[in-house]
């Protein structure tokens, strides 16, 4: 698909992207406990970054350590690519009963919703790549936000001796089970984002008990 | 936009009051604005005197303790767990927080923004009723309860939603009367003896002429305007207002207001020309509302028959149901209900004594045993009681005992009529074994303690929780002193009691399943009394006795007292007290629901939440049993 603007020419960038970039101009490093953080998850047609597509994005914001339902995001995307195998997991049918929007519109809305908020996802690299790939299809650059991975953060709270599955990254199910979080709506983007948000709150309370860490320092912190 | 998370939060909230009373759309609007908080154990949600937040809190997971600072120390006021709300009152009264909220375990809270909530709650009477009830219960002192009155106006409560006023008023069918010629003095004596506030003046044909009330006597006789020998007809208020039977409560109230009177005479045809058949007083109307403990208390004190007491006992049941429905804390409910119950017993015994041909030859005391003795009885169960009388010379013993056995027979019969069924094991004052003089009782207890056996342990588990119901406090006090004295050399007794306390293991089986009954008519039900409550009751009794603490019989209070005596175990004891209250509430709710004692619970009928709540009460049982094992060296017994 052709998109009418060019990566190299900044003047022709769409308005929402310009606004997005503008939010990063001031390079502050605020306290994590006072910052708006966005937790998100994507459901996709599969795990191939190049060929698979995003079916839905669910996100919820944590502001000053509180999950705010009024600051949440949930969108379903029309896709040509369809994979019967993954329907079993996420339950999103090609012609499902959801109001769906085009990928470009979904990404634009998501970027507007994000702003410069640090991003949290479970196994963050995958979701980040899927979003970046979609941005790339629109002729745009990659996400600029600070990104945390709850899988890695959670690992920091565990001493290697007490790790139940050392050498591996934790699945969201495994962590939720260990942290006693009920797993409703698992495998919907919004449901997983909410579970991830609770994992983040529980984990960050351990990593930042005195609420002193800044946004940039969290990824470097460790209990051990 | 679809909002999966908000939908899920709404699904959860709607299982709990007051959210279960909301319309679907209102609940959706609230859920979409919820703030989810996570508190690690030991963290504050807010602290006393903090400025109020813009939201109140609903406990999703975990437990939050509310603490109040009384001078030097923080005292625990309440524990909120899954489904409870807290921190709402200051938002409505617009004050700072009056208590601190601290996570007793790691907790997830839903913050409900007050602005979203008030808009909806104000239009919804059921919600404001619920809130008022929960506020009323959060207030432990009556002065504040009075102050809380402003909430009633703010929320425009409808007090009687069940059209109570349209019910037919029940009237007294044989009112006390006197003739017009009766001297006022005699009329007043009659009123005093019958404990009534008014007397009706009738002619020879029983046609009502007038009424004399306390205020007539105060205003006309006591002032010196008339002598006490004046004939009744001179000072009576006349004419009387008459109505036919079948008048509704609403009509009666309106007539009383219109004529500024407190009594209505019920006559055969409703006019003042026919025979008087009854009398309806303002007091009777109040009493029939059954929503006010103080009115019930007056009713009990004035009751002239066992039948009246039975009716009042039924009203206490109605009151209890309302309290439980409104989630009023159990310690509050227990106090009121056990107070009312003991007044009923008191009055029933008073009436029984009056039925005896002669007054009691010596002083005696009627004592309640078991759950009644522990003041843990909400729904009427079997009666367990005993009688102790003052020591008499041997030559008079048989005669005295037979007098008290006869009296006990009358008392137990009356209690049965009132709704306390006969004890199947015949553990009642009417049994010659449980009707003895003080010295024989003392001997009995010291034998039980010195030579404990399986049977005496079982008996003592009932007899150690005794409480004076009626009669001479001195007798009971002497008895408990002598018991404690015998206990000083009762090591073996403690061990046996400890073994007894461990006879029901933790109510959860190997697979974290509830242990259910395997046979009999209660097959596959969960016996909450013997599997969950008895272990706590037994443990509390044993620990309290071994600490030589007298005069605390209530299980929850025993644990709370133990928490003070043994600070190192305070946390365990407090959780035992909490668990016990939760279990008792559970049992009471089940009992009200199924109209039985609530003892056998059909697990299939419980919601998941209830099952979880129940399970959480079991952990302290396991822990306290461990403590007993170590303290009383019980391992070799088992």
From TrEMBL, chain A:
Keyword S-adenosyl-L-methionine in record: no
Single GO molecular function: 3'-5' exonuclease activity
Upper classification of the organism: Bacteria, Pseudomonadati, Bacteroidota, Flavobacteriia, Flavobacteriales
Organism: Spongiivirga citrea
Entry superkingdom: Bacteria
CDD domains (UniProt xref): DEDDh
InterPro entries xref list: DnaQ, Ribonucl_H, RNaseH-like_sf, RNaseH_sf
Protein name per its UniProtKB record: 3'-5' exonuclease
Keywords, in A-Z order: Exonuclease, Hydrolase, Nuclease
Gene Ontology biological process terms from the UniProt entry: DNA replication
UniProt key word Heme: no
Domain Exonuclease: 36-209
UniProtKB/TrEMBL annotation, chain B:
Positions of the CBS domain: 171-228, 236-295
Alphabetic keyword roster: CBS domain
Any one GO molecular function term: [protein-PII] uridylyltransferase activity
Residue span(s) of domain Cyclic nucleotide-binding: 18-138
Record bears the keyword Cell membrane: no
Pfam families the record matches: CBS, cNMP_binding, DUF294, DUF294_C
PANTHER family with a match to the protein in the record: CBS DOMAIN-CONTAINING PROTEIN (PTHR43080:SF2), CBS DOMAIN-CONTAINING PROTEIN CBSX3, MITOCHONDRIAL (PTHR43080)
Protein name in the entry: CBS domain-containing protein
């Amino acid at each position: 698909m052709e998109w009418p603007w060019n990566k190299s020419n900044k003047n022709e960038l769409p308005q929402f992207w310009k606004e997005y970039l503008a939010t990063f101009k001031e390079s502050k490093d605020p306290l994590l406990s006072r910052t708006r953080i966005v937790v998100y998850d994507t459901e996709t047609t599969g795990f191939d970054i190049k060929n698979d597509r995003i079916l839905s994005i669910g996100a919820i914001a944590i502001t000053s350590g509180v999950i705010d339902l009024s600051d949440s995001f949930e969108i379903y995307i029309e896709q040509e690519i369809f994979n019967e195998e993954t329907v079993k997991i996420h339950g999103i049918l090609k012609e499902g009963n959801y109001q769906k929007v085009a990928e470009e519109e979904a990404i634009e809305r998501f970027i507007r919703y994000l702003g410069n908020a640090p991003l949290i996802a479970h196994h963050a690299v995958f979701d980040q790549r899927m979003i970046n790939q979609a941005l790339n299809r629109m002729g745009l650059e990659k996400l600029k936000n600070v990104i945390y991975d709850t899988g890695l953060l959670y690992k920091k709270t565990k001493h290697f001796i007490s790790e139940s599955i050392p050498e591996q990254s934790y699945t969201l199910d495994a962590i939720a089970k260990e942290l006693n979080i009920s797993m409703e709506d698992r495998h919907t983007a919004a449901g997983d984002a909410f579970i991830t948000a609770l994992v983040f709150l529980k984990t960050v309370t351990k990593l930042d008990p005195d609420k002193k860490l800044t946004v940039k320092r969290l990824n470097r912190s460790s209990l051990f | 936009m679809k909002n999966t998370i908000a939908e899920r939060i709404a699904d959860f909230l709607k299982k709990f009051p007051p959210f279960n009373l909301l319309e679907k759309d209102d609940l959706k609007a609230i859920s979409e604005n919820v703030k989810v908080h996570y508190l690690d154990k030991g963290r504050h949600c807010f602290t006393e005197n903090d400025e109020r937040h813009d939201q109140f809190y609903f406990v999703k997971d975990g437990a939050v303790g509310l603490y109040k600072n009384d001078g030097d120390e923080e005292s625990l006021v309440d524990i909120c767990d899954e489904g409870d709300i807290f921190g709402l009152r200051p938002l409505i009264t617009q004050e700072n927080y009056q208590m601190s909220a601290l996570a007793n375990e790691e907790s997830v809270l839903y913050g409900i923004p007050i602005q979203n909530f008030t808009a909806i709650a104000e239009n919804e009477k059921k919600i404001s009723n619920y809130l008022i009830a929960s506020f009323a219960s959060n207030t432990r002192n009556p002065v504040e309860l009075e102050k809380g009155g402003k909430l009633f106006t703010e929320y425009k409560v409808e007090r009687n939603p069940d059209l109570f006023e349209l019910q037919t008023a029940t009237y007294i069918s044989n009112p006390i009367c006197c003739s017009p010629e009766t001297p006022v003095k005699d009329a007043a004596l009659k009123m005093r003896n019958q404990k009534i506030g008014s007397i009706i003046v009738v002619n020879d044909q029983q046609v009502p002429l007038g009424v004399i009330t306390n205020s007539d006597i105060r205003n006309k006789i006591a002032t010196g305007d008339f002598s006490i020998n004046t004939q009744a007809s001179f000072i009576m208020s006349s004419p009387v207002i008459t109505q036919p039977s079948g008048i509704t409560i609403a009509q009666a109230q309106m007539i009383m207001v219109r004529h500024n009177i407190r009594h209505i005479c019920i006559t055969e045809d409703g006019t003042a020309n026919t025979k008087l058949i009854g009398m309806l007083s303002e007091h009777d109307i109040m009493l029939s509302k059954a929503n006010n403990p103080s009115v019930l208390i007056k009713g009990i004190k004035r009751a002239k028959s066992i039948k009246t007491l039975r009716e009042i006992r039924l009203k206490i049941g109605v009151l209890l149901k309302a309290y439980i429905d409104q989630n009023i804390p159990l310690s509050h409910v227990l106090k009121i209900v056990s107070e009312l119950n003991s007044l009923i017993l008191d009055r029933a015994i008073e009436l029984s004594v009056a039925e005896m041909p002669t007054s009691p030859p010596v002083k005696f005391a009627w004592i309640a045993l078991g759950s009644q003795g522990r003041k843990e009885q909400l729904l009427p169960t079997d009666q367990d009681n005993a009688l102790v009388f003052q020591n008499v010379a041997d030559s008079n013993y048989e005669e005295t005992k037979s007098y008290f056995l006869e009296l006990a027979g009358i008392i137990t019969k009356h209690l049965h009529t009132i709704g306390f069924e006969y004890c199947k094991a015949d553990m009642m004052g009417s049994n010659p074994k449980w009707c003895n003089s003080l010295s024989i009782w003392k001997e009995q207890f010291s034998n039980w303690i010195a030579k404990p056996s399986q049977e005496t342990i079982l008996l003592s588990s009932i007899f150690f929780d005794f409480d004076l119901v009626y009669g001479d406090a001195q007798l009971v006090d002497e008895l408990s002193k002598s018991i404690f004295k015998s206990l000083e050399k009762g090591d073996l007794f403690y061990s046996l009691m400890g073994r007894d306390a461990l006879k029901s293991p933790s109510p959860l089986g190997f697979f974290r399943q509830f242990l259910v009954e395997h046979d009999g008519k209660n097959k596959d039900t969960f016996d909450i009394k013997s599997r969950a409550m008895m272990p706590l009751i037994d443990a509390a009794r044993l620990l309290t006795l071994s600490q030589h603490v007298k005069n605390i019989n209530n299980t929850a209070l025993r644990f709370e007292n133990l928490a003070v005596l043994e600070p190192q175990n305070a946390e365990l004891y407090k959780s035992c007290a909490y668990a016990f209250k939760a279990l008792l509430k559970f049992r009471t709710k089940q009992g009200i629901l199924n109209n039985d004692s609530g003892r056998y619970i059909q697990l299939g009928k419980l919601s998941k939440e209830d099952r979880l709540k129940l399970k959480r009460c079991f952990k302290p049982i396991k822990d306290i049993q461990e403590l007993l094992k170590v303290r009383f060296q019980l391992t070799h017994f088992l």
